[in-house]
Each structure stands twice: as structure tokens, then as C-alpha cells.
Design goal:
Number of domains: 2
Helix content: 55-70%
Protein name: FtsW/RodA/SpoVE family cell cycle protein
GO cellular component, one term: cell division site
Pfam families: FTSW_RODA_SPOVE (PF01098)
Radius of gyration: 27 Å
Subcellular location: Membrane
Keywords: Cell shape, Membrane, Transmembrane, Transmembrane helix
Structural class: mainly alpha
Order of helices and strands: HHHHHEEHHEEEHHHHHHHHH
Strand order of the largest sheet: 3-4-5
């Protein structure tokens, strides 16, 4: 009789809950609260039947309680994040308007890049929207699938590359181009799952990091190696906290070993560092790009410069140096707004971490924020002369399918985690 009364009360509450995901958590919370209240009342001298009756009365009207809980425990869309993303995509279109023609195995007019950019933006928004409505917790089932896909990409590039670029080998299969950066999304998901596994240990983590680190180094992807290392370090420190010491020590040792191959090319690296520190010493060589970018940024003005002849020489003005392009043509005011919006995107991710109760969801956001921040901070810093120049895209602004897909995945996963923050109270490690 007592159990029937308790069940009847809970059933009435659950009738008001629309989210199927929330019902299980709410039912568990209600049962726990009712049991605690009954135990307290019995200790105060009430009989079990009286305690059962009073416990449900104290909980209040089940219909009213259900309506209140439905408002609290429901999927939520982060409209601020979506708005910032849409504005960012809109601003990313502006640099494409400044491209009259670009030589790339033939002359591609500006319209080619404009059309492609529209397609890339639509794909990016589709990925963000699709992932947002997926349950991110289901990703746990594919830990070794993600790792296997990353290793498969590495092996293809090691053994059957079709050509080599300055960032490493690539494999062209029809219109599809496979490069090492394509492994990063899979590694990001793999690490988030691995670090939330009960069976994780130092040796598993160390082996996974060592194998992937040396693959990326061998493939010559210094940019993505930097992003990868910072991503993994951030996730390990956040998830393992006090237990992260031995893992970080092992990672540091692996990274130091990775420096050894650079000794054979130390003159090249020293010349690059010298060009960064003092570009005037080699104005026609390593220092040339530093001086040209500096001049363009100085001539940008508050509202832009319409003299396109001065920037036509700039290589990668739509990718790695897109911020130079943007600032020169549209001015420091709009460039400042762009930086602010990207900073707000990053801040939104970081601030939301504490609102998430699920450790797996937290780890996904930490890793995603790390990937986003390295690209954002490094690209802006190298443009204004605070860091050496390298092939580093500016999130969502740089032209290119892969960078946009990667950052769309990150934002999509963030929105998926955020959407369930009031539903998933705590998800134990697997």
C-alpha cells in the first residue's frame, strides 16, 4: 500500500515531464528524496505508514511539482552561442569579397571562392545543428573506432601519399584530399572518452600519446602537433587533476624526445627565430613576410584601405593570413569587433564548463576550447608580430573545408552538452 502511494505520486509528477531523458533522473531524485524524508520522520516517532503519508504531503501537489520540474529539467539551446556563430560565419564571408583572382594550378576568380565559402558555411551549420541534437553520451561507444580512424589516416599518409605540401604529405582521392589534420577530430573524441574510462591508467594514456605524437611529428605537421599537444595536456590536467603529475611527466619526456630530430635542421629553425626577432636583418629572405605584414597592418587604418594592389602579393591571404586581409580591407574597428566575437565564443565555452555536471561533457568542452583557443590566439598573435609565423587558421574565418568542419564539430558538441546540462546531472565513468 505504501509503495503504491509513493509510486502513484511519482507517476503523477512524471506525467508533466516532456523530456524522456529527464524522466529517469527526476524519478531517481524523487525516490531518493522521499526515502530520506520518510527515514527522518520515522526517527521522529511516526509510524512507517504515517511517515509515508506525510512525506508525500510535504512534497506538495504532484501536478504543480511536475510542471516546475519540467521547466528546470528540459533541453536548452544556447542561443547566445548560436548567435555568435552565425555572426562569425557572416563576417567570414567578407575576406572572400576581396579576392579578384588567385593562381592555384590555374586562375580561380573570386566567384569560385565565394561559392565555395557559401557551401562550406552551410556544411558547417549543418554539422553544428546535427550534432547539437545528438546525445553526446553515445560517443562513448566508439572510443577505439575513433582511435582506429586516426591511425588509419596516418598510415595512408605515411605509405601512399600522392603529393607533399609545406605542412606535410597529402593523399588526393578524386576531389577528396586527406591530410594529417583530418585525424584531429577523431583524436579529440578518443581522448575525451579515454580519460573518462574507469580502466584508464598511466601506461594506456602514455602509449596512446606517444604513438600519435610521433606520427604527427613524422608527417611534419608542426601546427597540428602544437594544437594536439595543448589539447591533450588540457584534457589530462582537467580530468585527472592531482593524478595528472605522472602523466604530464611522461608527456613532457615524449615531447623532449620529439625535439631531437630538429637538431639536424637547427640552422633552419634558428634562422626562422632570428627572422621573427629581427626581420630587418634578412629583409629579402626569412624576414620578408614579417616586414610586409607589418606594413600592411600599419596602413590598414580605422576603417580599411581600398588600395588592393599592396596586398595582392600576400600569399594565403584567405587562409593563414586572413586576419591581415580582413584588417587591411575593413579596418581596425571591424577587426576589433571580429576579435571580440571570437573571444566571446571561446569565453562562452570556458564559462559554461562549471555549469556541466557530467565529467565526460566537461572534458569534451575543455578539449574543444583548447583546440579553438590555440588557433584563435596563435593566428592573431602571429599577425600582430607577437608569435612566429606558421600555417595556423583563424577559426571559422580562414577559407578551407577541414578547419571549418573541425571547429563546427567543437561548437556542435558544446551545444549538445549544454542542451543536456539540466538533464544529465552526473554520468559515471565507463
Amino acid at each position: 500500500m505504501m509503495l503504491k502511494k509513493e509510486q502513484s505520486y511519482i507517476t503523477e509528477v512524471l506525467k508533466q515531464i516532456k523530456s524522456k531523458e529527464a524522466k529517469e533522473n527526476i524519478e531517481a531524485e524523487l525516490r531518493h528524496h522521499l526515502q530520506e524524508t520518510k527515514c527522518t520522520l520515522i526517527k521522529d516517532g511516526l509510524t512507517e505508514e504515517e511517515a509515508d503519508e506525510k512525506a508525500t504531503v510535504q512534497m506538495g501537489n504532484p501536478t504543480k511539482l511536475g510542471i516546475e520540474l519540467n521547466l528546470l529539467h528540459r533541453p536548452r539551446i544556447d542561443w547566445m552561442m548560436l548567435t555568435l556563430l552565425i555572426v562569425t560565419f557572416g563576417l567570414s564571408y567578407l575576406p572572400m569579397l576581396t579576392i579578384p583572382s588567385i593562381m592555384n594550378g590555374g586562375i580561380y576568380t573570386g566567384s569560385y571562392y565565394l561559392v565555395n565559402k557559401v557551401i562550406i558555411i552551410l556544411l558547417g551549420m549543418s554539422i553544428v545543428t546535427g550534432i547539437m541534437f545528438l546525445d553526446y553520451r553515445k560517443l562513448r561507444n566508439f572510443q577505439w573506432v575513433f582511435f582506429g580512424l586516426a591511425i588509419f589516416i596516418f598510415l595512408l599518409l605515411v605509405f601512399v601519399p600522392t603529393s607533399y605540401m609545406h605542412w606535410g604529405p597529402k593523399l588526393d582521392i578524386g576531389s577528396l584530399t586527406i591530410e594529417s589534420s583530418m585525424a584531429l577530430p577523431f583524436l579529440y573524441l578518443f581522448w575525451a572518452i579515454l580519460l573518462n574510462n574507469k580502466k584508464v591508467n598511466v601506461w594506456k594514456v602514455g602509449l596512446a600519446f606517444t604513438v600519435t605524437f610521433f606520427f604527427l611529428q613524422f608527417l611534419g605537421s608542426s601546427t597540428f602537433l602544437l594544437i594536439y599537444v595543448i589539447m591533450v595536456f588540457s584534457m589530462v590536467v582537467w580530468r585527472l587533476r592531482k593524478a595528472a603529475g605522472p602523466v604530464i611527466g611522461l608527456f613532457t619526456f615524449v615531447c623532449l624526445l620529439g625535439v631531437v630530430p630538429f637538431v639536424s635542421t637547427k640552422e633552419y629553425w634558428l634562422s626562422r627565430i632570428a627572422a621573427f626577432v629581427n626581420p630587418d636583418q634578412d629583409p629579402q629572405g626569412m624576414g620578408y613576410m614579417y616586414l610586409q605584414v607589418k606594413e600592411l597592418m600599419q596602413n590598414a587604418g580605422l576603417f580599411g584601405n581600398r588600395n588592393s594592389n599592396k596586398i595582392d602579393f600576400l600569399p594565403e591571404s584567405h587562409t593563414d593570413f586572413v586576419f591581415v586581409n580582413f584588417t587591411y580591407h575593413y579596418g581596425w574597428v571591424l577587426a576589433g569587433i571580429l576579435v571580440l566575437i571570437l573571444a566571446l565564443l571561446l569565453a562562452r565555452m570556458i564559462v559554461s564548463i562549471e555549469k556541466i555536471k557530467d565529467p565526460f561533457g566537461k572534458t569534451l568542452i575543455v578539449g574543444g576550447a583548447a583546440i579553438f583557443s590555440v588557433q584563435f590566439i596563435f593566428n592573431i598573435a602571429m599577425t600582430i608580430g607577437l608569435l612566429p609565423m606558421t600555417a595556423m587558421p583563424l577559426p571559422f574565418i580562414s577559407y578551407g573545408l577541414m578547419p571549418t568542419m573541425l571547429n563546427s564539430l567543437i561548437v556542435g558538441i558544446f551545444l549538445s552538452v549544454y542542451r543536456r546540462k539540466d538533464i544529465v546531472r552526473y554520468e559515471a565513468s565507463v
